Amino acid sequence: MTGAASTDRARPLPERVRAQLAQAGSATVANMLLRRGLRNVIMNGVRPLSADQPPLVGPAYTLRFIPAREDLDTLANYGSSGNLHRRAMEECPPGAVLVIDAFGCTTAASMGDMMAARLRHRGVSGVVTDGGYRDSAAVRETGLPCYQRDNAPRATPIALHPVALDEPVGCGGVAVYPGDVVLGDGDGVAVIPGELVAEVAAEAADAAAYEEFAAREIQRGRSLFGLFPATPESRREYDTWVAAGRPGRE
Question: What fold characterizes domain 15-193?
Fold first, then answer.
């Protein structure tokens, strides 16, 4: 739906699910999706803007760019209240992740620090683009978790023309539909189909908890065989460890 917000598709994510995804991480979630036949879920070449930013979790709200054209993409038009790039900053729902399809272009900025500050103030969870940001240091200072391909200091209208809000897009080679859930961390950005998110979150959190047990056993000198991946026997050991209060846990 070009230019119209669809808040019903960017429904708030339950805090329990959000916490489970953040605990599990993008790599573990990707494995859970692989079990369901979904292979292309991690964005290529998209990295966190800051190494110490918190995990990013939320339903996707999308903005799509195409290449700019000189008769349409002027600074005057960019300043219009109807400009979809500017509207995205006001219409992305609180708690959502703004996913910007810049078709891999870093010739011009997908966003700058003023826009990041506005999104932060409005309670948006963060931004992901396969393009880049201008004023990257200032974007970091807003505290908004952001992911990009590379810095892009030139003004947006030089290379990017916004054409759609809240429609299916491609970002980092991954399809993103409104209502999908985006999970970003130090490993990358994963996209989870909305209808699978609750079960994937629970399964991924359980897998992450088991990996804590497995890592502890490996540090004690135990072999990977019969431990990781988990076997029925090692899962029983894990359950016993959990029931005992996770002894030895730091």
Answer: Glucose Oxidase; domain 1 (3.50.30)
